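**User:** My hope is that you can spare some time for a protein that puzzles me. I have put the entry right below:
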Amino acid sequence: MTKPKLELTWIGKENRPKLEPRILLEDQERSYHAVHRVTDRDLFDNRLIFGDNLLALKALEQEFTGKIKCIYIDPPYNTGSAFEHYDDGVEHSLWLSLMRDRLELLRSLLSNDGSIWISIDDNEMPYLRVLMDEVFGRVNFVAQCIWEKVYSPKSSAKFLSENHDYIVCYARDTSKWNRNLLPRSAKQDKAYRNLDNDPRGPWKPGDLSARNYYSLGRYPIKCPSGRVIPGPPQGMYWRVSEDKLIQLDRDCRIWWGKGGNNVPAIKRFLSEVISGIVPETIWTYGEVGHNQAAKQHLKELLPDVEELFVTPKPEGLVQRILDIATNPGDWVLDSFGGSGTTGAVAHKMGRRWIMVELGEHCHTHIIPRLKKVIDSEDKGGITEAVGWKGGGGFRYYRLAPSLLEKDKWGNWVINKAYNPAMLTEAVCKLEGFTYTPSDTIYWQHGYSTERDFIYVTTQNLSHDQLQALSDEVGDSRSLLVMCTAFRGKPDRYPNLTIKKIPKTVMARCEWGKDDYSLRVENLPKAPPPPGQQDLGLV
């Protein structure tokens, strides 16, 4: 019998936004780069995007679908607390809709061997897990890590003092995703010594006995000193046969103690162990940091900023994720930029990054922080651990306004803020063409294949102009013509497809909407259907 699929239902689940694929406009005054290269591996194509993160993800879709190796997001937890930088009290069903819309776009951006990591607390974790199962598929669940976010209990707690958050990880495709080993620490290697000056280097003793039954594992052992050990401890077995023990001893892989009188131990050489540590699911603050340390780091880094985040994530936490999920040069995305921790860590670790942030702290927190990272003025966080010396840069983008706006009579018209280049790029994106205007051929503004092009103009094209276009395009190519008006019959030009703007695109998107953020006042109110509960599991 097939098990029923566990699925979340909530008010408004069937409602999906018709997102406008906006273009991104660079503000070169806010972009920032180091004055010179520090290493040959410096990265300058990182992106900081100011604007609504749902629209920004849609804007990235054409260029970055299938290219992002790792996504880390720290969305508002919907705990009911009012934070300075986020309204974190979104009604439960609205929070689920808003997260679903973002997760679907994030999934499309992930590479086939990519993964997504989400910080969440107990309040929404169970619902997020079921939602992630829907979007990513339950088979692609990787792990749910526990992060110890505080170093001392809260005496003011009403019930139990919460000292952890979760990091939920899903792969785009677990059959293609591979995790990295974590680097070994000096503390872990300290257990390896070389008590007998073995030329194979440091080693540590391993127990020769085990509880697992082994039929050849009960025999007496004679030490080099002459002492006879009658057998393994009661209920235990030697983990190797007598013949194997003799072979190991001949290879100097058995340690008998300095006097040759100890119970034998197997020498395990540091040079032969795996090069790293298998990641575990419990992350202590001693390993990856805690909220208070992260806040102190921000205070030192941004002394002139009066209001800092209440619970910023430590750089060590993001480093742990990127160590497991990425390699140098990979693309990392954070669509809830916050205080800029993900970009700062990715930059120091040699990963390319994209961050999106709508709040004004994009300018008051993130940009000043990243400048100090680039200029090697950030001495905290993971700087010393990764040997960061500065360098690289980022480009600052803002979302373009909506392509269409209403005139004084309530009609949708092309936004007056759009110049010809912006209009052409926006229409190319709407139609699925790559925007690459030709320097020599006026009608080649973009392409979809090697022989399929697009031409965007605000002209009212005459028959003669269309015929001239058709003649230039020729029989072996095709051209999509986007214009405000034209005269003549479209079927007279077999190599041309002619469409009017804005008429041909009006029904595709929600025009003029700039904010899909997690703020209650921006969200539509949906009355519950008669007899239906607000939320349930079916």
Observations:
- Residues 404-505 form a domain with the Trna Endonuclease; Chain: A, domain 1 fold (CATH 3.40.1350).
- The mean pLDDT is 91.
